[in-house]
Design a protein that fits this description.
56% helix, 18 helices, single chain, alpha/beta, Rossmann fold
Length: 550
């Protein structure tokens, strides 16, 4: 339960400190006095988003701090899951800086908004007038049944499986899309791949073939040049070899006169040996040269094939063609691999569907089992609230799709009077009837949940007189199990509270501020009398107020 609230620099509130007790607390005040501001500040603590418009003074930070006593609500595991220190007296603080930056703390540990929101779901239920419209919402109707049926564990397991199922489905669709894309190109890719394989390409092929082609295509010219070289080297009278030998012999005559001549002679001998080797190599080249038109044509064909493939694939090297060949091979392999992956995923999805259907059936059966219980409780409570002939028809049917909370459709139909047909709540229930139905639902849910606090924001809209009195009794009854706040304009409800707070505006200097104070018994009589008769309080209004409080 919430034990205290500190608000500083929020909207019309400059600074507010207020303590709360358990039981049934009433909050009253004139329209526009600041009750919505109070809820807005509390919303910040519970993870609502905020902006600079929340600041009363834009040069100072806004602080909202709430103390909660949560020792008996089994929240330790939730704190551990969020890596937070659990304290039976927990403090949640929210700060909005002038820069617009927002900070949040739980027991002085920084937290993000999602952690605050997760925590708030287990701390406070703030029922606004807008929430009454949720009665017509399928999710809210399922939540009623699931709370009574105790389906939380089943729903958690189902949702975990559903997330895995959706992930697998998304992956399967992606694989199938890729498969069909590859399949469309399968025949063409196989043709291109086979064409490249048949070309038997190797790195460096193009350069080698082009050189070989040039050599074969100019064999006569090469042969002629080689023969000239051999004549120059081997001619009997003026050949280079004969001249080098004579050059060496003459130089050798001087070797006895100087060691330097001997060294020079040795170097000439080395030249002679090297040159002789070159000549022999030229002789071998000359002997091996053949005019081979067939070989020339084969090389030309291979070159033309490479040129055609380069043009077709828009590349300039054989290495790039080889890379394309490998890519095509991978695509062909991928198609086979995708088929296996798709088959495996489909098998996993079928298994998950079986498990989901099993969980969904259990959830659905437990919902059906509690429909009579809910029906009976609603009729009993609403009978006390002036709706003696109310009837409900709640039907659960199978859905073709998986929802986050099962595989059911729901029909939550209502009839307020004898002889009238059933219709949806949104169409046939009046505002006052919706308020009473919502209160009945909250009362029933409070018997099954371990929620510390509930705040009713004008749930009495559209009712008055004895019905308002009965609504107050129901909320007071709820306060025996949880802390209950009621923001109300009805004196019959206000008189039921164990404690009473008033929201009011005051002018300090040139500034209007909202304030909240706890009323003592005398102040409470006056407040309820004003609710009965307005600012001009009559004696009868005071007596009526005392009677209501007694």
């Amino acid at each position: 339960m919430i034990t205290s609230l500190h608000i500083e620099n929020f909207a019309l509130i400059e600074k507010l400190n207020i303590n709360f007790v358990d039981g049934f607390s009433i909050i009253t005040g004139e329209t526009g006095a600041g009750k919505s501001i109070l809820l807005g500040a509390l919303g910040l603590v519970l993870g609502k988003r905020a902006d600079l418009s929340s600041l009363k003074n834009c040069d100072e930070k806004c602080v909202v701090e709430a103390n909660f006593s949560i020792g008996k609500y089994n929240l330790k595991s939730l704190f551990e899951a969020n890596d937070l220190d659990f304290e039976e007296e927990t403090i949640i603080r929210r700060e909005i800086l002038p820069s617009g930056k927002s900070r949040a703390f739980v027991n002085d540990s920084p937290v993000n908004l999602q952690q605050l929101q997760d925590l708030s779901l287990r701390l406070i239920d703030i029922h606004s007038q807008h929430q009454t419209l949720e009665l017509s919402n399928d999710d809210f109707q399922f939540n009623i049944l699931d709370s009574i049926a105790g389906n939380q564990s089943l729903l958690s397991d189902f949702y975990t499986l559903l997330k895995l199922y959706k992930t697998k489905k998304t992956k399967l669709e992606s694989k199938k899309s890729n498969f069909f894309d590859f399949l469309k190109e399968k025949d063409y890719n196989e043709f291109l791949h086979q064409e490249l394989v048949a070309a038997n390409l190797k790195s460096g092929d193009l350069e080698h073939l082009e050189k070989t082609y040039e050599a074969l295509n100019n064999v006569e010219f090469i042969k002629e040049n080689l023969d000239k070289l051999l004549v120059l080297a081997n001619e009997d009278e003026y050949g280079l070899i004969k001249n080098l030998k004579e050059f060496k012999a003459v130089l050798l005559k001087n070797s006895s006169f100087s060691a330097n001549y001997q060294l020079l002679s040795d170097r000439v001998n080395s030249i002679l040996i090297e040159f002789d080797d070159v000549v022999k190599e030229l002789e071998r080249e000359s002997e091996s040269l053949l005019n081979d038109p067939e070989q020339l044509e084969l090389i030309n064909q291979k070159l033309q094939l490479i040129y055609i493939l380069q043009k077709k694939h828009q590349v300039i090297t054989v290495d790039e063609l080889i890379e394309i060949q490998n890519e095509l091979q991978n695509k062909i392999y991928t198609l086979t691999s995708l088929e296996d992956e798709i088959a495996s995923l489909e098998l996993e999805i079928n298994t998950l569907e079986t498990q989901l259907d099993d969980f969904a059936a259990k959830i659905s059966n437990s919902r059906r089992e509690v429909i009579p219980v809910l029906n009976e409780k609603l009729i009993l409570i609403l009978g006390q609230l002036g709706m003696p002939n109310v009837r409900f028809k709640i039907e659960i049917g199978p859905s073709n799709d998986y929802h986050y909370n099962g595989k059911d459709n729901i029909q939550f139909l209502f009839s307020a009077n004898k002889g009238t047909d059933f219709g949806t709540l949104k169409k046939v229930a009046s505002g006052g009837e919706m308020s009473r139905i919502m209160l009945a639902v909250k009362f029933i849910l409070s018997q099954y949940s371990k929620l510390p606090t509930i705040i009713f924001d004008e749930i009495d809209t559209g009712v008055s007189g004895d019905i308002a009195n009965k609504m107050g009794e129901i909320m007071k009854s709820m306060s025996q199990r949880m802390q209950v706040f009621a923001i109300t304009h009805l004196p019959q409800i206000a008189a039921k509270g164990n404690s009473h707070f008033k929201v009011y505006k005051s002018i300090i200097g040139e500034t209007t501020v909202s304030e909240l104070k706890s009323l003592n018994p005398e102040e409470r009589i006056i407040e309820i009398a004003e609710m009965l008769s307005g600012k001009q309080i009559s004696e009868s209004a005071l007596n009526h107020a005392k009677a209501l409080l007694n």
